[in-house]
Amino acid sequence: MIKPLVSIITLTYNHERFIRTCIESVLHQSYGRFEHIIIDDGSTDTTEQIVRSFHDSRIRYVRLPHEGLATMGKRYNEALRMARGELIAILEGDDFWPYDKLAKQAPLFENSSVVFSWGKVRQVDHNDQEIDSVPLFSLDTSLWRNEPIGAVLQKLLFFNPIRSPSVMLRTSTLRNIGGFIQPPSLPLVDYPTWLHFALQGTFATTNEVVGFYRIHPVQVTSNQGGNIEEMVALYALSFLSTVSSVIRAQFELSGEAVSKNYERRKVSRFCTEGRRLLLRQEWRAARARYAHALRYGDFLTRLKGALGITASLLHFDMEFLAKILHRPRLR
């Protein structure tokens, strides 16, 4: 039986520090039937020179004029039009893979009902130091496998645990939904695309690490976390309004629940902002954020607020507590 061709899509912009690791992790895959499509959004550093230093016919490099985050969906879909594979895997220019990622996930699509596969990732910092593996919960449940179709929306409408370097998609399904989806209001394509896949077929999951997801200061999600959360919540509500009444009733999906969840997350965001300010030793500003959490949060958030205020008064950060609780650290 001929193994399916996997088209790997990499978007990159000024990733000179990370792109070599990204490409090498692809070329070292134990599953060799792939093509690697790299779309460069007009990098101004040495990204292009690094990519061109690899002489492998499976790499297809396209450099385009810089257009920025607002055209991510357009760039992904340009790569999709070039793709010849039956499967699509996503690997952004600052992320990388374990050597057996493709070998673990490609066979999962032998089941014709599977349209989407995902698994755990290991988060690393800009120096490749491991932070933790996420998500922390087991993915071996019917809900995360989207059985029956639409079931995963019970969680996915409220938070997105699916990191893109862990994802593999059936190409025909992706094209059927119109390609990668980026609403005008969002500087990302992953979450809207995952939501649409939830209505197309079942998901195949693995509890093994199938990607390395990099967290570093210049990421969009690092710099615009609160704003993105608000935009994501608005998109989730918009998407839910397009879901059939049958699916909404079957899984008890409601816009009110989505809105309440966002309000809780918004208050929790004060704690995250406070942690970042503590790290920068901006004690007064951090104290103001934690005061909001103490005033408006639930019991756990108020507890975090009280601890944060104490930390701001005594001039220490909260990262030791994150380490003890095995939560992601900010440094």
Overview of this protein structure:
With 331 residues, this protein is an alpha/beta fold. The chain folds into 2 domains: 6-222, Spore Coat Polysaccharide Biosynthesis Protein SpsA, Chain A; 223-324, no CATH class. It contains 14 helices and 8 strands. Strands 1, 2, 3, 4, 5, 6, 7 and 8 form an 8-stranded mixed sheet that branches. α1 (19-27) links the parallel β1 and β2 (34-40). α7 (190-197) packs parallel to α9 and α9 (225-240) packs antiparallel against α11. It is globular. The termini are far apart. Pfam families: Glycos_transf_2. Residues 7-141 form the Glycosyltransferase 2-like domain. InterPro entries: Glyco_trans_2-like, Nucleotide-diphossugar_trans.
Q: What's the topology here?
A:
Elements: E1 6-12, H1 19-27, E2 34-40, H2 47-52, E3 59-63, H3 72-82, E4 87-90, H4 101-105, E5 114-124, E6 130-134, H5 153-156, E7 168-170, H6 171-176, H7 190-197, E8 202-214, H8 220-223, H9 225-240, H10 245-250, H11 255-279, H12 283-296, H13 299-314, H14 319-324
Parallel strand pairs: 1-2, 1-4, 2-3, 5-8
Antiparallel strand pairs: 4-7, 5-6, 5-7
Helix pairs in contact: 7-9, 9-11, 11-12, 11-13, 12-13
GO molecular function: hexosyltransferase activity
InterPro entries: Glyco_trans_2-like, Nucleotide-diphossugar_trans
Domain Glycosyltransferase 2-like: 7-141
**Average pLDDT, all residues:** 92
Q: How would a textbook summarize the main sheet?
A: 8 strands, mixed
Rg (C-alpha, Å) = 20 Å
Strand content: 15-25%
Structural classification: alpha/beta
Q: State the fourth-level CATH superfamily of the largest domain.
A: Spore Coat Polysaccharide Biosynthesis Protein SpsA, Chain A
Query: Helices and strands, in N-to-C order?
Result: EHEHEHEHEEHEHHEHHHHHHH
| CATH secondary-structure class of the largest domain | Alpha Beta
The helix tally amounts to: 14
Count of distinct structural domains: 2
